[in-house]
Amino acid sequence: MNLPNKLTVSRFALTVAFLWAMFSSFKYNDTLALLFFCMAGITDFLDGRIARARNLITNFGILMDPLADKIMVCSAFIALVESTHMDPVAPVKVGAWMVVIIVGRELAITGLRLLAATKNIVLAAERYGKHKTISQIVTVIALLVLDACKEWPSTLQNFFAPWTPMFANIMLYVTVVLTIISGGIYLWRNRSLYLEDL
């Protein structure tokens, strides 16, 4: 297994570690959850770059890299849907309808990839999908910072508290819009895969 594929597989393990930390109740568990999620996000950034730079692109990577992204992001948003990050200026709440859109889009695209695989076609990630994934990761990190910074020294709390809630709110809606747009474009560009079977 080459390095990019190892990084992809490690993202599955980091997602499990992130969820474990997030649902635990020990001291600094929110900070640890943030750390695990950031590490998973870094592997997403590195595996594709290394694969392209070293010409290590494989069918395994083309299929599993987007799947690892989807599991990581969907797990995070589902876990966050129950939490409300209260702030007197900008209360932040991950709406269930937002998560339904995000998870629904990812399931639809995964289904399309599986359909393509039955026809011996491998669908690679597209540019809009990458922008969507970046916005999702940034949003989750912002939401995690809202919880984690309560465990940090007052200097760090004072730095993040004034702007992070508003930023997280904005990114939530940006992410939903990008999720819808990127999913629509992907389904439209590959419509021949499912229309011919209707």
Strand content: under 5%
Total of DSSP H or I helical runs spanning 4+ residues: 8
Using the coordinates above, name the CATH class: Mainly Alpha
Largest sheet: 2 strands, antiparallel
Low-confidence stretches: none
Describe the fold and architecture.
There is one protein chain. This protein has 198 residues and is mostly helical. The chain has a single domain (3-195), classed as Four Helix Bundle (Hemerythrin (Met), subunit A), CATH 1.20.120. 76% of the residues lie in helices and 2% in strands. It has eight helices and two strands. It has helices spanning 3-22, 29-53, 59-80, 96-118, 127-148, 154-160, 164-189, 191-195, and strands at 84-85, 92-93. Strands 1-2 form a two-stranded antiparallel sheet. It is globular. It starts with a helix and ends with a helix.
What would the keywords be for this entry?
single chain, 198 residues, Four Helix Bundle (Hemerythrin (Met), subunit A), two-stranded antiparallel ribbon
Describe the secondary structure blueprint for this structure.
Blueprint: H1 3-22, H2 29-53, H3 59-80, E1 84-85, E2 92-93, H4 96-118, H5 127-148, H6 154-160, H7 164-189, H8 191-195
Antiparallel strand pairs: 1-2
Short structural description:
This protein is mainly α and 198 residues long.
